[in-house]
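A favour, since you know our structure tokens better than I do. Would you make up a two-line entry for one protein for me to read? Write everything out right here, beneath this request.
=====
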Amino acid sequence: MILRPFAAARPISHLLRTHKPTPPTLTQIRTLTQADIDDPGMNGGYPNPPPQKRQFRDPYADWWDKQERRNFGEPVHEDHDILGVFSPHEYTHFTPQKGFVLMGAFIGAVLGLCGLVSLSYPDRPAVERTFEGGLDRELGGQGAVLAPSHEE
């Protein structure tokens, strides 16, 4: 008795046929939906107020949150972490030009003080000591007595 699966077996030739794959398409079709048109910021319709650092808001106004200078229910900007009170402050005390002038004046004053000190600094209070004939013999030169060695 012949088994049914073997009887219905097809030849292997259909597996050996060459198959040409279709080349992949590299095009993207971007379509705008009505939701993208209605909400271009893609934030769910949340109102995004204009960017203003809390540092520049009036500190004496009647704010609900006096530290953050914000009223209750006021929408915050999406970059609130950059615009909040605890972000680095913008340095507005001097313009860069005035800062360079002040830094140059400081460097000039320090260098002027160093020059004045070097002009008025006293010389050495003592005269260097000299030895007749130098220290050749005392420091182990040609006329020095050799130290005894342990081998002798």
